[in-house]
Amino acid sequence: MCGVFGYIGHPSLKLRNGESRLNAAKIVFEGLKTLEYRGYDSWGIAVQVQSPAAAKALAGGQSEKSKLIVEKHIGKISDSDFPLSTFHSSLALGHTRWATHGGVTKANAHPHLDCTGRIAVVHNGIVENFQELKKDLVKKGHKFKSETDTEVIAHLIEQELGVQPIIGVRPLENAVRKAFLKLSGLNAFVILSDSYLIAAKNGSPLVVGILKDAFLIASDPSAIITKTREAIFLEDNQLVSISQKSLNIYDVKSLKKIQPKISHLDWTTTDSKLGKFAYFMLKEIYEQPQVLAKIAANGGQIEKLAKIVKDAHGTFFVACGSASYAALSGTYLFAKIAKKHVNFSIGSEFNYLEDYIDRGSLVIPISQSGESVDVIEPVVRAKKRGAKIFAIVNVYGSTLFRTADYNLLLEAGVEKAVCATKSWTAMVANLIYLAYATVGKANQGRGIIQRTQKAVSKILIPEYINKIRKLSRILTDAKDIYIIGRGLSYPTALEATLKLKEVPYVHSEGFAGGELKHGVIALIEKGTPCIVFAPNDETYDDIISNAIEIKARGGYIIGVSPKTNQVFDFYLPVSDVEVGSVIVNTVPMQLLAYYLALEKGLDPDKPRNLAKSVTVK
């Protein structure tokens, strides 16, 4: 979940924009800003500082050791000025943290150093056996300065440097390798030491960017795209060793050298800047009509992949968070449109249900990042059982993308806000299109997505925004908000609930309307806000009856529907676009979560305790 960014270059050269390669600290600082959505508790940078004389010596091929300087700060890097402007270096490594072990303190921020101050380490993951390793290292005289599991890695490498080296292998590379093999859990780390960047991974993502006579390393390809489009995605149990002039990849267990596979990142970056918007969340809400238009226009890929779903012997969706509610919507969509049974499981629970997976099964993981460990783990296990993997992801080259037999790219563009908005819309729209294409009705599916695009655009107008802002002021002090829906609107209620929990921190619960009388209605008291999804479908009469039952007990009813009803105390009109209503009805809830956060003085892009990509269990 943390963000990692490193840079190493030959000091005598310049980048293609004329920037000095001795600005490594600045390059890393700016790179970390692009990764802040992965963690914003604290951040830090280590630089190998070089005087002009040292730089000149290195450029001439001479050996001159340089000093490591570490700068750490609490809080968001986006709120900070560049702190290392006086240091000249062609080698730097940085980290933006989402805390797992130890509180949010300067001491716990990365990078961490060994006892000698010669090795700096940044890390993404959890060292599950760190207590055992730390106890042993303390006995051997190592001094720890933090509460983190990460610091163990620095001291392990230091310890291994004193062990007899392997002939033909650099001592530092071998020490990193041996330290990595002692770690339990899913981990990726990068070290900076003696003019090298060395990294190893298992689970958490790392990508190397290739420039002319320089290299980048990051936890997300979006961080390197402005400087290069040539990238190497590091696979599990691989070690990469990068100097100012060369790059080598090894199998971490056998030390066999691996020929790197270079990928070309064919992306655009225009949508990763705020422009006229104050926050990325609002920008990404407003981008949803364009995302829907793109999906409708590029349906050829979906139509080709539909046959895979049609021919599968057992189909299983697996996803987490917002993607799980998109997947749950998919079960309704395939039942309603394609008359096909599709199973669904939350990613973290799928391992306990995997016994029914076999050859002929089709597992469809759905993920924005393609890096969620709770999705990747069961997918890998399903693949070992012989299942085919059909990934629906937003990030080209992600772990899920590389693991899958087939891929459907969401084409949502870069999503910076932690809260999913346009990526969720893209997931559901692609599932609508896929369900129709599975039964040879692709044109009908395309038509619904086009109508959905127009319906969403009608919401994103000043008059409608004013209604949302008025509602947000009414609900500012609400401690509990309940949301109900039936059929396709049930997963919509769950997704809306998640938005209200993660952005404005409102306790909210989503329920199937029919469950009210089975216990849930006991929560209703005078003034309790309840949002009711009442689309113009077979669920309308029953959900209105549920709303009446809630109002009779004092509930304040907020109706989201194509038609008003006297039971509604506050009405949010939406267009009727058949199954596309699952998307349209959610957009007002995205806006409500956003404006409620503003009313409370919160940052809607970076909710507390959350990060965009969940790469730890």
UniProtKB/TrEMBL annotation:
Domain Glutamine amidotransferase type-2: 2-245
PROSITE patterns: GATASE_TYPE_2, SIS
CDD domains according to UniProt: GFAT (cd00714), SIS_GlmS_GlmD_1 (cd05008), SIS_GlmS_GlmD_2 (cd05009)
Protein's GO biological process: fructose 6-phosphate metabolic process; protein N-linked glycosylation; UDP-N-acetylglucosamine metabolic process
EC number assigned by the record: 2.6.1.16
Lineage top rank: taxon: Bacteria
Pfam families registered for this protein in UniProt: GATase_6, SIS
Coiled coil feature spans: none
Enzyme class, broadest EC rank: transferase
MF term (GO), any: carbohydrate derivative binding
Domain SIS: 305-445, 471-607
InterPro entries: GATase_2_dom (IPR017932), GFAT (IPR005855), GFAT_N (IPR047084), GlmS/AgaS_SIS (IPR035466), GlmS/FrlB_SIS (IPR035490), Ntn_hydrolases_N (IPR029055), SIS_dom (IPR001347), SIS_dom_sf (IPR046348)
Catalytic reactions of this protein: D-fructose 6-phosphate + L-glutamine = D-glucosamine 6-phosphate + L-glutamate
Keywords, ordered alphabetically: Aminotransferase, Glutamine amidotransferase, Repeat, Transferase
PANTHER family per UniProt: GLUCOSAMINE--FRUCTOSE-6-PHOSPHATE AMINOTRANSFERASE, ISOMERIZING (PTHR10937), GLUTAMINE--FRUCTOSE-6-PHOSPHATE TRANSAMINASE (ISOMERIZING) (PTHR10937:SF0)
Stored NCBIfam families: glmS (TIGR01135), PRK00331.1 (NF001484)
Protein name: Glutamine--fructose-6-phosphate aminotransferase [isomerizing]
Native source organism of the sequence: Candidatus Curtissbacteria bacterium RIFCSPLOWO2_01_FULL_37_9
